[in-house]
Amino acid sequence: MDNYRNDNTARRYKAHVSILGTTQLHLRNPYIIAWWSAAFPGFGHLLLSKYIRGYALFIWEVVVNLKANVNLSMIYSFQGNIDMAKAVLDTRWLLMYIPVYLFGIWDSYRTTLDMNKIYLLAEPEEHRFNSFSLGALEINYLDKRNPLLSVMWSLFVPGLGQLYIHRVLTAIFVIVWLVVFYYQSHFQEAIILLFWGKIKEATSVINPEWLLFIPSHFGFAAYDSYMNTVENNKLFDKELRQYLTRHYQPDGFRIRKGQKVK
């Protein structure tokens, strides 16, 4: 049950609140979105709420990266072993990896520019949208939340910040892949060994190819939760302002510069 159902009379809509999350249009920096796509293909599209495209690029990155030994080559490069870095690369997979990687950056940049234009056209319409959704499995509603809490929970476990702001689809995806990265990299085992002072054992047990995926995962979860908390708070203020104006402000009310309002 929604407190308002769209009648499809608007040319464009700004937001949609459902039991799976809050999706909205707002201005974004295309360079930042493109940067996240460069850091990890798919992240830029997830920031835009383009879930299907983001999931596809993300899974492609993990599979083809490992098959082409891109992360392993990066590790050898960090160690200054350039010859080994070139030797481990599998060119059969690498030649497929590069075009898709570049496409992810370009497409996220292009899509951001388009969505910014759509937002600028949708904003003056000020068409209504539902702000409360009640279903058999979940409840979602617009309210104000603390962006710093979103970041804090994301740094504890990526995905918790998204759950805090009810960004369910992203939260599930981030948490599931965090488990995969932790398990395949043996990250948790290495941390326990470090606590015990067994540095050599911790170094030997870690799988660096899978480990390199984790920093980007943490960074994305923190940024996504912070940015969406801020934008959801702005959307809450706009929706509340429109509601109060529509129900409590007289039709002829005007604020004139330099005059007192009685």
Task: Give the tags.
single chain, 262 residues, mainly alpha, elongated
First-last Cα distance: 40 Å
Percentage of helical residues? 55-70%
Strand order of the largest sheet: 1-2
Largest sheet: 2 strands, antiparallel
Order of helices and strands: EEHHHHHHEEHHHHHHH
Relative strand content: 5-15%
Mean pLDDT: 91
- Total helix count? 13
Radius of gyration: 23 Å
Query: Could you list the spans in which at least 5 consecutive residues all have pLDDT below 50?
Result: none
Shape: elongated
Number of strands: 4
Class inferred from helices and paired strands = mainly alpha
Overall description:
Helix 1 (30-39) runs antiparallel to helix 6, helix 3 (51-68) packs antiparallel against helix 6 (91-125) and helix 10 (187-195) runs antiparallel to helix 11 (199-205). This protein is mainly α. The relative contact order is 0.15. The protein has helices at residues 30-39, 43-47, 51-68, 70-78, 82-88, 91-125, 147-156, 160-164, 168-185, 187-195, 199-205, 208-211, 213-248; strands at 15-18, 21-24, 132-134, 139-141. The strands form two sheets. A two-stranded antiparallel sheet has the order 1-2. Strands 3-4 form a two-stranded antiparallel ribbon. The chain is elongated and about 75 Å long. The two termini are 40 Å apart.
In short:
This protein is mainly α and 262 residues long. Helices cover 66% and strands 5% of the residues.
Please give the structural blueprint.
Elements: E1 15-18, E2 21-24, H1 30-39, H2 43-47, H3 51-68, H4 70-78, H5 82-88, H6 91-125, E3 132-134, E4 139-141, H7 147-156, H8 160-164, H9 168-185, H10 187-195, H11 199-205, H12 208-211, H13 213-248
Antiparallel strand pairs: 1-2, 3-4
Helix pairs in contact: 1-6, 3-6, 4-5, 7-13, 9-13, 10-11
